[in-house]
Amino acid sequence: MERETKIKIIGTGIFIILLLSVAYLVYHSNKIEKNETIESVKINGNKLLSENDYLNFARLSDLSNNKFSLPVIKSRFEKHPYVLKADAKFINEKEVKVFITEKKIYGVIIQGSEAFFVAENFQLLPVFQNTKMFDFPVLSNIDKGSDLKSLRKIKSINILQAFKIIDASKLISTKILKDLAGINLRNGGDVVLTFSGLSIPVIFGRNYEAEKMVALEALLNNYSINNNLLAESDYIDLRFYNDIYIGSIQRVEM
């Protein structure tokens, strides 16, 4: 009986010691984290803006008199219009690296003197002064009287049509996608495309986007831009399924 009592007392004592040790370690680690100052924040995954632009937006360019937690840093970056998600991690005791995933941009819309990005989720994003511009196609004549405002979503039949054309271009050829300069949606009419390096417009029409892109790529591969057939023509017409028309506009002298 006495032996069992001693064993219980020893076991209880060991448990109390372990509990106190854990409590001390938790308190000590929290104290260190609370007093620790971040000296450097680096960014990974940024393409649309420079590291400094993102740091300025997150108010993290000057860390001399501030102490931040990882959740605060993550939250500040995710408030940026271009950022889909962010994750912040300690690289060492004084340095934090933020891994950001930017929203996927499909095109650019220009309204008056203001330009917007159109993101994958149909959201309009502002184009900032220092934004790096890539080969995004310009979408025009989307909807009559449409009121475009930053951070709003602009999901319509015409926007969906533009997205289908961009997706088809991406699927068929990276060169076709890169050269796609403009998508004129003509307020619901036959879509007209323009390509860098091609001086004549492409009357694309609507529907059968992938098939038409395959036909267009084959045409451009078989006929160089300097070929007489294209050089002497005024347009390429893809509106008719399985048929390509290369035509000229008849000019009547008065």
What features would you describe in this structure?
By secondary structure, the protein is of the alpha/beta class. It folds into 3 domains: 1-35; 40-102, Ubiquitin-like (UB roll) (Roll); 105-247, Rossmann fold (3-Layer(aba) Sandwich), CATH 3.40.50. It is 35% helix and 24% strand. The chain is built from 7 helices and 12 strands. The strands form 2 sheets. It has a 9-stranded mixed β-sheet with strand order 6-5-4-7-8-9-10-11-12. A hairpin with a 6-residue loop joins strand 9 (191-195) and strand 10 (202-205). Helix 4 (157-172) crosses helix 6 (209-222). The longest helix has 34 residues, at 2-35. The chain is elongated, with a radius of gyration of 30 Å. It starts with a helix and ends in a 7-residue tail after the last strand.
Features:
254 residues, Rossmann fold, 7 helices, alpha/beta, nine-stranded mixed beta sheet, Ubiquitin-like (UB roll), elongated
